[in-house]
């Protein structure tokens, strides 16, 4: 399932393509490309766990981020933590007490926007696995170039040359911001403008999700 360059008024995102059920030995999986950046996510669970690892209140969530090189850095552990925090807010873990859910993300290609691509890929994999969610979420990346211009969903070259990076994750119901992570220096007005541009662009991603999931016989509410 794929779409060409997505455009909503002045908001454009790189072409997105996705395939669900990509891995046969997981409860849910998705491979997603945003432009030339590609991520693969798999979900296993809820599954039973040993007594000492159980929580009587909710499922235990484990997130593993695997790099293309196989040698994780501090930045990779940061990505892993951001993905875990986002998933914990979205998953209705209280429906699965005394179990565990494992989410694994594999970097395949990184040409800018890998973290946002990974988050979007994870959301699709969770939907494919049938895990109950409070909401669907979408991530959008923004770069700030040396001239002070905001670049929505930047290319790898634009991302490498940028003086600041901003990433936003929105939930599907009211487009409320649920996660924000930034690098570099910028003013408050620049941040607000990037936030609102990303919020508007998230509609394109949610629309893409609906197309992907409907192809597999489901509907996102």
SS strand fraction: 25-35%
Largest sheet: 6 strands, mixed
**The CATH homology group name:** GHMP Kinase, N-terminal domain
Uncertain segments: none
SSE topology string? EEEEEEEHEHEEHEEH
Structural account:
This protein is an alpha+beta fold. It has a single domain (10-215), classed as Ribosomal Protein S5, domain 2 (2-Layer Sandwich). The protein is 30% helix and 35% strand. The protein is built from 4 helices and 12 strands, in the order E-E-E-E-E-E-E-H-E-H-E-E-H-E-E-H. The chain has helices at 74-90, 114-129, 156-161, 188-215, and strands spanning 2-3, 6-8, 11-13, 16-20, 28-34, 37-48, 60-66, 99-109, 137-144, 150-152, 164-171, 177-184. The strands form 3 sheets. Strands 1-4-5-6-8-7 form a 6-stranded mixed β-sheet. A 4-stranded antiparallel β-sheet has the order 10-9-11-12, sandwiched between helices. Strand 9 (137-144) and strand 10 (150-152) form a beta hairpin. Helix 1 (74-90) runs parallel beside helix 2. 40% of the residues are buried. The mean pLDDT is 89.
